[in-house]
Amino acid sequence: MQAERNSNDVADLNAQAHALLKANDRGGYTVPNHSVYPFQWNWDSAFVAIGFATFDCGRAWQELTTLFKGQWSDGMVPSIVFHSNADHYYPGPAAWGTHHEPPTTGITQPPVAATAARKIYRADPDRTRADAELRALFPALYAWHHWWHVTRDPDGTGLATVVHPWETGRDNSPDWDGPLSAIVPTVDVSMLRKDNKVVDPSERPTDLFYNRVMTLVEEAKALRWDGVAVAKSLSMRVCDLGIQSILLRADHDLLALAETLDFTREAEQLRHWIETATKGFEWLRAPDGSFRSLDLRSGHLSPCVTSASFLPLYARVASADDAKFMATLLHEWEKTTPYLVASSDPYHESYDARRYWRGPLWIVVNYMIAEGFAHYGYHDLAERIRASSAACVQRHGFREAFDSHTGQGVGGRDFSWTAAMWLEWLNPQKLG
Ligand code: DGY
Known about the structure:
Blueprint: H1 10-23, E1 40-41, H2 42-52, H3 57-67, E2 80-81, H4 93-96, H5 113-123, H6 127-151, H7 165-168, H8 177-181, H9 195-198, H10 207-222, H11 227-233, E3 238-239, H12 241-260, H13 264-280, E4 294-295, H14 320-336, H15 363-375, H16 379-396, E5 401-402, E6 409-410, H17 416-426
Antiparallel strand pairs: 1-2, 3-4, 5-6
Helix pairs in contact: 1-17, 2-3, 2-5, 2-17, 3-5, 5-6, 5-12, 6-12, 12-13, 15-16, 16-17
Bound molecules: (2R)-2,3-dihydroxypropanoic acid (DGY).
């Protein structure tokens, strides 16, 4: 466990970030955190790979390669790969019933891997290894993007369908309150939960949320996890602005890799997907000028702005006017939540300062938002996001998330992706 710390121990934090990644290494993959999330999580691993690439590119490639061992034959890359026994986590393999080997969940997570692969490829000092690793990984990355654009967009609308809040990584975001509200739970899993035994329950999703999301798992099991059937008929079908943005950004990165490898057919297909997905964003614009997630069943945009609303910058799909709008909006948020960027609108009634994705800031999301603002020329704002993120980690350690009012840590401790982002982005020594 990490103690609260002073803000002047940068070198010490570098060493602790390395030590944490080592401690959470289970031999080829890294657990997000040893108590709450003891297996390999999809987008966690992609960010962790970016962290490894700051000091060990061989290990960075391995993190991605191990993740793709869980890839399904239809291209889907699951949210969790249960490489080892799963008794101390709920829901484990039996609850998912996917009968996959290695055991996996039946849902996916934000597709950060292609972006991570491009970063590692650039960083790797061993060019022979970099070429070999990229060549070996590319078909698996491409198959996953194909799955997103075809299986999860069966009608070719340019909007990727998400069928479960856990796919978004922003599990209990207010974005999913509307889509989940119609789901009458058919299961009661409150006694099976383990997460709220190791983390303060007020910082975790509610039992009602768990009962609803496990009802979705039961629906998918009844469809034998058939990709298109799941995409077309689950009780929750949304376009998550987070995934839509992260996917488009990753498409651009994968396209750059395809061009590097001279894979012309794949490059052409990627250009087509990029064009269609870019057009899809027009469906995600609210009348006030913000971007929001869309409930594909009801046709309603989310009633609330979240941290995902800044990610079109990261996807490079925002116009200069959009960027200005987002910068103005974030200035407003900053007045009440000085530690940027709250995961949900701090002025909205659904805001909850400490409950998981309903308020606290997440360093990996900040990393993407700051990169986006910097790209659009908002360097001061990008630096304020970096500096306040760094202050949280320096004062409170590698926590899962942080309270946007006070900077205090919330959720689990000793988080791999927070350590990885310290090494890649927050560490002031990186600035020079
Ligand atoms: C959990 O168990 O809380 C995860 O976020 C699901 O992926």
